[in-house]
Sequence to fold (182 residues):
Amino acid sequence: MSENHLQQLKDMSALERIAWAYEIYGGGLVITSSFGMQSVVLLSLARKQGLKIPVLTVDIPGEKYDVQRQYRRILQKHFGFDLRVFEAANDSDKVSTMDRGLKKICATACLTGIRWEQTETRAKKIFFEICSTGIINIHPILDWSDDAVNDFISDPALSTVYGGPEVCDRDWSELKWNHCLL
Fold:
């Protein structure tokens, strides 16, 4: 991707980035999710675009992920997305499990919910990346701040999905989820 194309992606809104990705990758486009806060944002934005994009996640055994599974069911019921769950043996197997899942369904590109503010490593990311597996990662909300995410999910129509920011904050701090599996 040329510098000019990368600048165009940078200048787009998150909604425009999602529409662009769908136009380019169509049926090969998926959303990868660990069902953190960013999941509500990505799923809502895809729905606003009227897009039916499959959602892939890795399920990790153990009670500490029960809240995540419950939240996943709530979001699936609310948004009605096509969920593809791949079972990992443990925490350290989640990336390879996701890679196998992406290959199994012939995905060519992924929308992820990573953001610059999350970690030092993610602060160096760009909106469009080619992974070593050949899959394209597109990060539509990479430039969103914590405040922007909180403002978005504070919308009363969305807070009924997960119980509001105070529930969300409590569950995230307890689980310490990774918000992106790739």
The chain is about 45% helix and 15% strand. The radius of gyration is 15 Å. The beta strands are 29-32, 55-59, 83-87, 109-111, 128-130, 136-138. The longest strand covers residues 55-59.
